[in-house]
Amino acid sequence: MTFIKSWEDFEKAAEKLYLANPMKVRYTMKYRHTDGALVLKFTDDAVCLQYRTEVQQDLKKIDRFMTNLMRHMVSSDK
After folding, report:
1. What's the confidence (pLDDT) of residue 78?
2. Distance between CA 50 and CA 28 in Å, rounded?
């Protein structure tokens, strides 16, 4: 499992993965205090996407992305 370096690349790939099969995708968000890093992981058991950041400004981007993803989850569009 490798980490995607760019937030934009991770965001596009994770959204594409979710839209391809929303019932199978899951994600985790883990803060590692020892490293001071936040790790995001999206997977559908076939593809695993990971992003790691130590920059506090990325939290706003992550929050915006998660909000957008939640909108996809609750929308009635199939």
Report:
1. 54
2. 10
